[in-house]
Amino acid sequence: MQRARKTASAFSPLIAINRKSARPLHRQIYDAYRSTIVGRTLSSGQQIPSTRALASELGISRIPVLNAYAQLLAEGYFETRVGAGTFVSRSLSKRIVAPQNPCAVSTQIGSGPRRLARSSLLLPPYKRDPWVRHRGAFSVSQPALDAFPFKIWANLVARHGRNAPTHSLEYGDPIGLKQLREVIAVYLRTSRAVRCEPQQIMIVSGSQQALDLSVRVLLNPGNSIWMEDPGYWLARHVLAAAGCRIIPVPVDADGLDVAAGIERCRTARAALVAPSHQYPLGVTMGASRRLQLLQWARQTGAWIIEDDYDSEYRFESKPIASLQGLDDASRVIYIGTFSKVLFPALRVGYLVLPPDLVDPFLAVRHAMDVSPAHFHQAVLAEFIAEGHFSRHLRRMRALYGERRSVLLDSLHREFGSYLKVFGNVAGMHLAVTVPKGLQDRQMALRAAAESLWLWPLSPFYATKPAQQGFVLGFGSTTAAEIPPAIRQMHKILLATRH
Q1: For residues 120 and 135, what is the distance between their CA atoms, to the nearest angstrom?
Q2: Does the pLDDT at position 333 exceed 70?
Q3: Helix (H, G, I), strand (E, B) or coil at 479
Q4: Distance (Å, rounded) from C-alpha 141 to C-alpha 337?
């Protein structure tokens, strides 16, 4: 039994030739093509291999193939083009009706119950609201991709593509590429005051995987964990899927309220915090709170997971030192990512682990996906080592500082004191709250219909009543686009209020 495969630029279906079948060979080929065309596996206009090529692939005489093709041409399934070859007939596109639901799952009696893991049932259905799907004013977590040094990056990609060593095609080290971990260690020690050596750094596929990995290693189903309220909604999904008991802890102008956390659940197994730039309110945890949090972790044996997702961009002072740098009891797991400072599709982040946790994390990481992909690690390591990363950060800090100033001026000019602004000293977003009586999600849906992407603030809250407002990203919105977008936002709020 042979199967046809790709031939040149044309494709054939998987044709199983059975020489012992009572059906002639030409009929087997005919039936295979007809069923795949009717089922739309082969689409209208798609090229078909020549009779000679298909016969060679199937290891049979050309005569059965010629007979099958002749029948398919006669019935209108195929068409020929002089000098081009044989194709699925274009006239079929309007005649063949696709199945109503080609992805429908059979639920016939006797198929057995469709049991799912408990973790999947704990999560809300996958859904992307319009403000999550689009770029522009005021989409969140989107960097200024138009300012990224694509030429430099492309040259590095081409260089590594041409000179890739053979070992780079093999399975890599589950902890990540040594060269990348070395340059990250230098960067973190100098710019974020993180205490680390390269052997403590693990490369992961973004901060979401870093959190998932941390939860798998540190927490059991039913364990309690503090989470900032409001807090990052995708982090809440990771914790829910792991069966954790989430303890919402309020956030004020000084960050996570540690005293409130202790009052609600002193024996929590861990705390998830973003002390340098809280998400979504953007506040910075003060020194007193940081020391209080570290003391709680030391006394109770709890873990602190520090999410440091975009603290490189601070506009009125130097970047705030990490919480991990103050930790003298090795209770902090530090998470960083390149998604916000470079581009999201890179999917490269990192963990800084206490030395005694490296082996447990390695065991779980290896079980999850063996190792991170080599290629972009190598490109990124060189991008950092050659100084391109630090120059890019300096340029972006100035660019985002300008956009942030224009946004603040526009908000003040259009709204005055009507909106309260939070978290405008760092990062690529700020938050605004609206007066009581207004519903942020309703306004966000109305804005989305006008291609304005206002992220409602209320879904970030675990407790009710939730504060109403918006998270406004300015990373991917130019300074020229901001004033008219704020005027548009003002009109929408006025129309909704009335």
Answers
A1: 29
A2: yes
A3: coil
A4: 12
Site of tokens 């198929």 = 111
Q: pLDDT, tens digit, for every residue of 2-31?
A: 544 444 456 667 787 888 888 899 999 998
Average pLDDT over residues 438-444: 90
Domain boundary pick from 364, 386, 408: 386
Average pLDDT over the chain reads 88
Strand-pairing partners, residue 248, are 227
Strand segments (E) across 407-474? 420-422, 429-433, 455-456, 469-473
Question: Is there a single domain that holds both residue 188 and residue 316?
Answer: yes
Model confidence over 162-208: pLDDT tens digits? Answer: 988 888 888 889 999 999 999 999 999 998 899 999 999 999 999 99
Binning pLDDT at 50, 70 and 90, where does residue 266 land? very high
H or E element that contains 379: helix 374-385
In Å, the largest CA–CA distance within the chain is: 86
pLDDT of residue 5: 44
**113 within domain boundaries:** no
Element (H or E) spanning 47, and its range? strand 47-48
Residue span of the structural domain in which 1 resides: 1-101
For the chain, state the CA radius of gyration: 29
Order of strands, edge to edge, in the sheet holding 78-81? 47-48, 85-88, 78-81
Q: Could you tell me if residue 459 is left (phi over 0), alpha (psi between -120 and 50 degrees) or otherwise beta?
A: alpha
Quick one: 399 and 379 in the same domain? Answer: no
d(C-alpha 335, C-alpha 88), whole Å: 52
Reported confidence tier of residue 130, pLDDT bands at 50, 70, 90: confident
426 touches 444 (CB < 8 A): no
CATH of the domain at 489: 3.90.1150.10
In a 3-state reduction of DSSP, which class is residue 286? coil
Residue 150: Cβ within 10 Å count: 12
CA–CA separation, 333 and 270 (whole Å): 10
